[in-house]
């Protein structure tokens, strides 16, 4: 049994996705052996997380740092196409799309996916906020394109179908609502975060 401070840290590291008890133990002992102030830098970095907030519109992270801003730089940008919204599973997917330099709309970060094996999973996502956001957008501009930019995994497809099902009824009131899905370019079972820029460009260009 390790000393309690070490064991507590091991237990915390083991909660990270993809990190098991053995890997967590290696990480903790790596920190213990560092003599160049790395542990202090890590502590400072973790303390900085308290300044991180979520954009009230798209739910990407923003550095509040004492300001009272509630929207991220993209959602505030008047040059972006506010009538086009790409719905992504996580913020890293949004960054991958931004790297293509061909998408100029806004985003909506779900913070997860709908799991076919977990009926409670939709409640943990920003789906209600998405429906409310798109409804308000349509009431204001009467047209919008919603790009379902989820991965080509089982969960990604399930999430896209779920969103399509909750947004499609809005077409009764707003016929200029368009719901599209990323087109060819993404291989089956792939996640946006790991797709190269050329592949994502193809998927965006051929959305349907």
Layout of secondary structure:
Blueprint: H1 4-13, H2 21-33, H3 38-47, E1 52-54, E2 61-63, E3 81-88, H4 91-98, E4 105-109, H5 127-141, E5 144-148, H6 154-167, E6 177-181, H7 197-205
Parallel strand pairs: 3-4, 3-5, 5-6
Antiparallel strand pairs: 1-2
Helix pairs in contact: 1-2
List the defining traits of the structure above.
Dna Topoisomerase Vi A Subunit, Chain: A, domain 2; 6 strands; two-stranded antiparallel ribbon; four-stranded parallel beta sheet
Describe this structure in words.
Helix content is 38%, strand content 14%. With 208 residues, the protein is of the alpha/beta class. It has a domain at 81-205: 3-Layer(aba) Sandwich (Dna Topoisomerase Vi A Subunit, Chain: A, domain 2), CATH 3.40.1360. The chain has a 4-stranded parallel beta sheet. The chain has a two-stranded antiparallel sheet with strand order 1-2. Strand 5 (144-148), helix 6 and strand 6 (177-181) form a beta-alpha-beta unit. The model has no long low-confidence stretch (mean pLDDT 89).
**In percent terms, what proportion of residues is strand?**
5-15%
- Low-confidence spans: pLDDT under 50, at least 5 residues? none
| Mean pLDDT reading | 89
Distance from N terminus to C terminus (CA atoms, Å) equals 57 Å
Based on the structure given, which CATH architecture of the domain at 81-205 is correct?
3-Layer(aba) Sandwich
Indicate the structural class.
alpha/beta
CATH topology of the domain at 81-205: Dna Topoisomerase Vi A Subunit, Chain: A, domain 2
Question: What overall form do the CA principal axes indicate?
Answer: elongated
CATH class of the domain at 81-205: Alpha Beta
Strand order of the largest sheet: 4-3-5-6
Radius of gyration: 20 Å
